[in-house]
Structures are given as structure tokens and as C-alpha cells.
Amino acid sequence: MKKISLISLLFFTSILLSGCMYPESERAENQKPYEDQLNSVQVAVDKYQEASGGLLPIKTRDQSVDQYIKYPIEFQKIVPAYLSEIPPNAYENGGLFQYVIIDVEENPTVKLVDLRSAEKIRDLNIKLGVNGYGPIAGEIAENVYKLDYKIMGFKEEQTVPSPYSDVNLPLVATGDGTIYIDYSIELNRVLQEDKPTVKPGEDIRYLLVDKYPVLPAYSLPYTVNKNNEPEFLLKK
Fold it and tell me: Any idea what DSSP says for residue 90?
């Protein structure tokens, strides 16, 4: 396989959160996932759910959307009744994060999505649209490829800043033209440092979900190989 099919703009629209083009205001206080802000939103969500008979203050999204961006919080439903103001680091208030809810059925939990990742994917999708295809530099795993950025017109490999450390994360693409962030570096670090008990065949992205406030959005599922190293979890 030499080329990835053209990514339609409709697909891009489906994977991005509403309003992912974050404002230009990038003050330091708007770029960090402060725990107190996250906790205040969690309290507001809990109060809203209790008062509304179990409903959650979320926007309606297509069920096919990435599980980590499927339930963005609709702040109009909790501000100012349950929360005095929208957190400064939220996209809606000039920040870099989209507040979302995961585990909506069992344990609704407020988490964050780093919108810099969505921005980079948007830029690459536009580039692919201009060129008409995505040239392949090599196959990383079955149906997972590295893009040839030089052919696409870039001088260097395109990456996104990790929300978990100071490293930059590479991007990969599948045969249908979908672009994903590769979190292997961070998953391997957690496996080495925390030494959690994981089983081959299970999706280990929960290791990042449980450990950090920011979700591994726009990613493929991962598992571990026989050496307890992260690898893409291929569909059978």
C-alpha cells in the first residue's frame, strides 16, 4: 500500500470537538490542567446531576465519535447555578482544554482534552486535502503507518506536545486516512515507572486516564506484548 486515501473534511469535523480552534489567548494560567479547577467543575457536575434527576450537563454528539471526546461539558447548564464561572483554562474562556465527562453511566468523571492535538490534526488534514493523498514513509504495525512529511511539504516530522511530560509525540495514520496521536512513549514510561499489572489483549490506555487529568484523545487502542511493552491493539 503506497498511499492513504484522501481524508474528507466531514471526517475531520466528526473527530474534533465543537470549537476546537482555541482562541489566541495563551496566557500561562490558561494552559495548565489545574486540579482545583477540575475539582470545582466535578462538584458542579455532581450537583447538576443530582438536581436534574440523573442528567448530565453534556452536549449531544454522534456515538461514533472517539470515546474520549464524546461527552463535552455544556457550561451554560452549570454556570452560574452550580459553578461561578467557566475555568480560565477551558476553551470557552480562552484556554487550551476542552472539559469532558467519561464513564457517564457508572461514574461520571470530569477530564480534559488538550486541544493543541486537535489543532495539529486539523492542519495535517488540510495538507492532505491539498495534496489529495497521504504518502507513506513506512508501516509501523498492521494497518498503521508513518507519513512521509517531506513529500507533504514539511521540513521535519510533525508532532504534538505531550500533555503528560515535556516530550513530543509522533502521529500515525491508518489505511483509511485517519490520523492518530501515538502515545507509546508515555505508555511505556508508565509501564516502566509504575509497573502496573496488565494483560496482553486489554486496552491499556486506562493507565493514562487513571493517572492524569488529560485524556489520551485521538488515539488508537494499545496493549502490551510479551515483553510488557506497548503495542497497537489490532482488531481481530
Answer: B
* CA–CA separation, 173 and 232 (whole Å): 12
Pairing state between β 168-174 and 179-181: antiparallel
Sign of CA dihedral 25, 31, 37, 42: positive
Assess contact for 197 and 204: CB atoms under 8 A. no
Output the CA torsion 13→18→23→25 (10° steps): -130
Q: Give the residues across from 4 on adjacent strands.
A: 134
Residue type, 182: D
**Which three cell numbers, joined as nine digits, stand for 17?**
470537538
Strand partners, 87: none
pLDDT tens-digit map of 195-226? 999 999 999 999 999 999 999 999 999 999 99
Each domain of the chain, given as residue ranges in start order, spans 3-7+116-232, 13-115
What pLDDT digit, counting tens, does each position of 153-169 carry? 899 999 999 999 999 99
First to last CA, the chain: 20
Count of CB atoms situated within 10 Å of the CB of 214: 20
